[in-house]
Amino acid sequence: MFAALFMLLIIFVALYEYAFVSDRYQSEVLLILNQEQSGITTFNLSFLGLPATGEDKDALSVVEFIMSRDMLHYLDDKLHLRDHYSSSRIDWLTRFSNTATFEDFYNYMTNWLIVTYDPTSKFIHLQLQSFDANYSKAVIDAIIAKSQQFIDTLNAKMTAESTRFFEDKMVESENRLNDAKQALLNFQRANRLLTTQKESSIVMSTISALETTLTTDKSNYDSLATTLTPSAPRLQQMRSDMTALANQISIEKDRLSGASTSSVSKLNAQYSDLQLNLEMVTEIYTSNLSQLEQARIEAARKVKFLLLVASPWAADESLYPDRRYIVITVGLLLIIVFIALDQTLSKVRGHTV
């Protein structure tokens, strides 16, 4: 009796597994989260039970994202994931119900999408089983692409946070530099000069030329004064010219170093202040620019990206379910159950007798 029942159950299990259970195709990939190193060595102490390193936390963030509801929504929108696993072509015991909720589907997919992380090798192992070999690979490819987008978003946020302070300082120093340039330009336009040094040279050249002319005129006047009377029209004109030259020399000297606000010395003091301010803000701008570039370089060294250690592939045969293993396992369990029942019944009969 037991033997017949055993054979009947084994035949039923084998018939169901080989005739009704749908073939499942697995696609998998090995990933590693890499980044440009800054030259600082970090030590993996997770084997001592100590907290994970920053590298482990980043990789675990990727694992959590892959297993997230956001990823499941994305895959469903892109590849109709729910329709695939609820297809009528799949055996009723494995098939997902069309009427179930999204949370049920999320829990259901944890049986088919498995993501693990090895803190020693730093590998992210991604496995997916579906009911079509090419579909499994397509889902894996979509997960990799979406994960890289997720990492790119994190990289952009990290870079923005790392450089925001320096960018703000850069904008501030650039505004100050533009204001200093405009102030110097307005000063030059208002006083109609290029530089105070050139203006000083022009005034000194003018004074020198006037003094030379005045000296020549005095010499000529003294020569003529020995032959002409003081009231002679020519001498009177010469005296008038010399007086005018002397007045002009006095005016030019006052322009050079007088108390007037438009004197070259006053203008030179104002121009020097404006020029000094321009040089100072230029140095600040250059320094901030250098710091911003350095911050960008440091941020670039921390940029992370996914590397494929083993590329995904489309399975050329179904590996699951392992029908032989299932039938043998069920057979062994039945044998154990039958032996236990036989011993129990033997003891009961013995007590009855």
Describe this structure in words.
The chain is of the alpha+beta class and 353 residues long. The protein folds into two domains: 22-163 and 301-322, Bacterial polysaccharide co-polymerase-like (2-Layer Sandwich), CATH 3.30.1890; 167-299. Helix content is 67%, strand content 9%. It is built from ten helices and four strands; from the N terminus they run H-E-H-H-H-H-E-E-H-H-H-H-E-H. It has helices at 2-19, 54-66, 69-79, 81-85, 102-109, 133-191, 196-225, 233-257, 264-301, 323-352; strands spanning 25-35, 113-118, 123-130, 304-310. It has a four-stranded antiparallel β-sheet with strand order 2-3-1-4. Strand 2 (113-118) and strand 3 form a beta hairpin. Helix 1 runs antiparallel to helix 10, helix 6 (133-191) runs antiparallel to helix 9 (264-301) and helix 7 runs antiparallel to helix 9. The radius of gyration is 47 Å and the shape is rod-shaped. It starts with a helix and ends with a helix.
Mean pLDDT: 80
Work out the oligomeric state of the chains in this entry: single chain
Strand order of the largest sheet: 2-3-1-4
The total strand number stands at: 4
Kindly report how far apart the N and C termini lie. 22 Å
The helicity comes to 55-70%
Q: Give the SSE string.
A: HEHHHHEEHHHHEH
Shape: rod-shaped
Compute the number of structural domains.
Answer: 2
Weakly predicted, low-confidence segments: 38-51
Report on the biggest sheet. Answer: 4 strands, antiparallel
Structural class: alpha+beta
Q: According to CATH, what is the topology of the largest domain?
A: Bacterial polysaccharide co-polymerase-like
User: How large a portion of the residues is in β-strands, by DSSP E?
Assistant: 5-15%
CATH architecture descriptor name of the largest domain: 2-Layer Sandwich
